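User: Fold this one for me? It's TRAP transporter large permease protein.
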Amino acid sequence: MITYVAVGLLALLSLSIPVGIVLFLLGFGVDVFFSAFPLMRGLGNMVWSSSNSATLIAIPFFVLLGEILVRSGVATRTYAALDRWVSWLPGGLIHANIATATLFSATSGSSVATAATVATVAMPQAEKLGYDPKLFSGAIAAGGTLGIMIPPSINLIVYGFLTQSSIPQLFLAGLVPGLGLALAFVVITAIVCMIRPDLGGERRLFPFAQMLRALVNLVPIILLFAAIVGSIYKGWATPTEAAAVGVAGTFVIAGLFGGLSLPMLSQSMLGTVKITSMIMLVVIGASFLNFTLASAGLGRELRDFLTGLGLTPFLTLLVIVGIYIVLGFFIETLSLMVVTIPIIVPLVAELGYDVIWFGILMIVLIEMALITPPVGLNLYVVQGARKSGTMTEVMLGTLPYVAMMIAMVAALIAFPQIALYLPSVLQ
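Assistant: Here's what I get for TRAP transporter large permease protein.
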């Protein structure tokens, strides 16, 4: 059955069928060929129960928040402000890509949206200033992945929903690794550009007075992050309520910057509907597939396979990490999460590992999948924003950052407190 699911998933995805539909089709196939019960009778109830959750309402709110920030021009102002503060480092404007991605990750909750935001704003600057296209593009793709790690994160909300874990604790757990990855990206960029100065472009210094004036454009985003995440951590609001507060704050920011208009709102709403519909179709389809797989005994089959290897819990964990790395090459990231979480997370808990910690470890592996071919979504987003060049250039540019993600995976396994310290102290 495992072979059927894997081959069927790859075959259907290769036909460019939407991921949500693929998951439903696989579920129907499992029901027909492997299940002893007529599971189709429960399809309606499964679709309703998997989508009828107040927690999932946070998803369209966070998507709308990011759409408004991008379309109102706030992103452009933020990028220009960070350019004045970080372009003196070896690598110049590449650090502004990472810094902007980090800041928008703290508000948008989506990796693809973050990558699209920074790529749209940054690419014209790269071409004008003569930056090496590989490293410049790779930094944007890698920086965009921080959107699903630094809270608030849509993927962490989905993980919490599927595992019945505390979303505030997941947000706390993701903060240090997320900021740590951002710092690691800055360090590796500086090292690469010191070794190969031709890759980094011109280092620019701005008058201190001009740098101070630029801070005005950063304050609203920082306050927005503090309002969203702070209200969750303090217990004043649930993630859904905090997302609604964030949307209200985004309207205020867009109005203050003069970017509020009916056409902008119309485009933001339309974009929100499209993205949310895609996410929910995947969540519902995966819920149905997981229901059929569980009924057909896949969870037991996978558990027997892993325990039959006779490995220690640590080595079993390394096998699971390897499985995620391989699957990340071929399966879209949200689909990979919702399909595997109900099967893998109970096994991880049985091995004695913390579910919150494993959620952060999984997110790092998912981040790697976003920038590794052939299905890395951020690669396509960044390439789509470029006016020339090949996808291979973007792929090569992400290699230093993939190395940093592998290092973070190793660090999380060796030192779980990187993720668990804040939840243990602040909750």
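One thing worth pointing out: The chain is about 75% helix and 0% strand.
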